[in-house]
Amino acid sequence: MTQRPATPLPPPKERRRLREAAALTQAQLASRVGVSRETVRAWESGRTTPRGRRRDAYATLLAQLAQPVPSGPAPEGAPAPAPAPAPAPAPVTTELPATAPVVIAPPDSAATHPVLTPGQNTREKEPEQGDEPERGPALLPAVSAPAGVAAPLTPAEAFDALYAFCAPALVRQAYLLTGRRELARESVERAFQLAWQRWPEVAVDRDPAGWVRAAAYEYALSPWHCFRPRYRHPEPPPADASDRALLDVLLALPPPYRRTLVLYDGVGLGLPETAAETEASTPAAANRLLHAREAVAERLPELSDPAVLHQRLAELASAERLRAARPPAVRGGSERRARFWTRAAIAFTVALIGATALTLRTAPTRYEPPVPPGETVRGVPPRAAPGPLSERELELRAKLREEMVNGPERLVPEPE
């Protein structure tokens, strides 16, 4: 039994060139071959190689794309080539897609609170990935372009679009978490500054709005703010008595319970999404939500209904005039902060290298034990210095010289 040889395929770079020359996206080519877009991307990058029937279909399609298109009219009697299917034009839209962040508002209060326009749960239905991976996140709005082609946004434009859409709602959500207006604005600005520093990572995230929201919540609920002088004293409470009571109840909750309540009953996330964002299990998030609702209903019985609580949270968030900074100011602050820490790291490294070099230069090359201080020794007679012989010693020396020397020759001293 003989094995049929594998169908030859062009190199990975040639595969991608043929697809782009035919104006086909990875998703369109994947649908024609019968595979997923990630599989086509792996084939074009060379990480994997198709096998079996998929290899034959992929090789046949690439061979069709490699055939030149005849410019002149076809000769008589020759069959007309089958026209290649035209790629679907990329949609051009000026609206934010469904992956935009959810803001705090009840589903039926759009007319009452136009500032907090509600949105559906962004994580229940994942949007289809765009046809052009170079565009970055799929939630960013596209700008109009001629001939029905969506023009890619620059990183600054994409960041400004995300900030303009998310920042107003995030400031109000951070106010519900902290009860401080200035801290709410600062939390959102720091979160977006961090997002601009890590923009390559945030731009390709499946939910950039959720990434920024998680960063803002973490900064807003940090326990270290109590040591800052500007946040040691409470801010003026809301003017309405019911708003003050609701805000006091929220601030009395533990931070994890407060965050879970705001995400589920305020933002409108599902229970699994809330558990994932709070880094807890789904049963733990459900218990936190139930205890938070019980604490709120105990002090405010009229808010025992989740729908009423949702509406009151939206009203409390929209009652305060909370405005975020402009996107260019946030990007500029992020860049200045990055430059400062970069220069500080360089200065610290240079100082460490200089201190090490100085130490190596001035350190001794061998060990020199220290000289101990002198101590008085008792019980030992002092050492006598050489001096003149006494009379007894003189007599003994004379006697030894006069006597005869007896004993072996090797022991007898010879006179010099």
Query: What is the approximate shape?
Result: flat
The secondary structure category is: mainly alpha
- As a percent range, the share of helical residues equals 40-55%
Strand content: under 5%
Largest sheet: none
Q: What's the end-to-end separation, in Å?
A: 116 Å
Radius of gyration: 42 Å
Number of H/I helices? 15
* pLDDT averaged residue by residue: 77
Poorly predicted runs of 5 or more residues: 72-149
SSE run: HHHHHHHHHHHHHHH
Count of distinct strands: 0
What would you say this structure looks like, in words?
The protein has 416 residues and is mostly helical. Among the domains are: 12-66, lambda repressor-like DNA-binding domains (434 Repressor (Amino-terminal Domain), Orthogonal Bundle); 98-110 and 153-358, no CATH class. 51% of the residues lie in helices and 0% in strands. It contains 15 helices and no strands. The chain has helices spanning 12-21, 26-33, 37-45, 52-66, 155-178, 181-197, 199-203, 208-220, 241-252, 255-267, 271-277, 282-299, 306-319, 327-362, 391-402. Helix 5 (155-178) crosses helix 13 (306-319), helix 6 (181-197) crosses helix 14 (327-362) and helix 10 packs across helix 12. 26% of the residues are buried. Mean pLDDT is 77; it is low at 72-149.
